[in-house]
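Deviations from the work plan: none for this task. Representative record:
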Amino acid sequence: MIVRGALLALAGGQKVKHVVTSAPGIGDIVTRFAAGESDDDALRATSDLQDEGFDVTLDYLGEDTLDRAQAGLTAGAYVRILHRLADAGLTPRTEVSVKLSAIGQALPGEGVALATDNAMAICAAADEAGSTVTLDMEDHTTTDLTLQTLAELRKEYPATGAVLQSYLHRTEGDCRDLAAAGSRIRLCKGAYREPESVAYQNRADIDRSYVRCMKILLGGGGYPMFATHDDRLITIGEALTRRYGRSRDSYEFQMLYGVRREEQRRLLAAGESVRVYVPYGTEWYGYLVRRMAERPANLSLGLRAILDHQ
Ligand SMILES: Cc1cc2nc3c(=O)[nH]c(=O)nc-3n(C[C@H](O)[C@H](O)[C@H](O)COP(=O)(O)OP(=O)(O)OC[C@H]3O[C@@H](n4cnc5c(N)ncnc54)[C@H](O)[C@@H]3O)c2cc1C
């Protein structure tokens, strides 16, 4: 927990970011968790995964912009990749995941409206490409705004999905609100450093909340997407989907690119739908730090990659 907190605190530090991103050898660890920097890299990884039987969600890396032009460029990058995915015949099995902070949500005053406009443009491109969009969830200060934007987007594009985090006390209620027919909800534990006032701090509490949320989502008419690498939760998920009489096409499991690949293949071989979350792009720093915070072994992997190149 201490290592996790320290790493997540580093995610926002510019000095450390410079040291890490310019370290020799860091490329090796980045390519373990991201497809690469270009659209071509993303398309290649997507095509390979689909050949293996996986579905994909692509995340164009970038977060927290306070620059209107940058927000527009990120939205443009999503529109571009959606066109290319359609041209390559990779939709509908590939969709995109979008962080609202990367498309303007944090801009003072106009942020929510700007991010909603940009997200609407991405949803329109996804719709045209025969694909969908899921809004990633960021720290708790943005949860209400993100769900507000989701509601706006779903008026035009009802298949737009969102993420709920089981570490937040509020999430069971949000699951109840969003478990209705047509609603696509990704359930994850949560990747940010959150205060006790809003979030469970203890692993067992977060896991118990995850199971309660699974039951609520499976009991509703929506399409739950269980995003976890946790063996116990996956086993419980497999059992609950059967207990709730869910057909295999009415829910899916999701995991991150490069994490627990054998388990991804096992689930697929067992007949489950598995979607792999594939990040790509040049702004990989914040994403990488969150992956290291989740598993200290990834940190030693990163340090080893850097030291090997000294
Ligand atoms: C598809 C997907 C989308 C996500 N979207 C969001 C989002 O929008 N917002 C958000 O806050 N969080 C998101 N997350 C991250 C999530 O909240 C967790 O931080 C992350 O999934 C780790 O939790 P876990 O459920 O895998 O369980 P953990 O208890 O963290 O891990 C269980 C086991 O899985 C393995 N494992 C977990 N993480 C790693 C890793 N990084 N590297 C190697 N092994 C690992 C380890 O063996 C570990 O013991 C997403 C996760 C996934 C899979």
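The chain has two domains: 1-34+284-310, 38-282.
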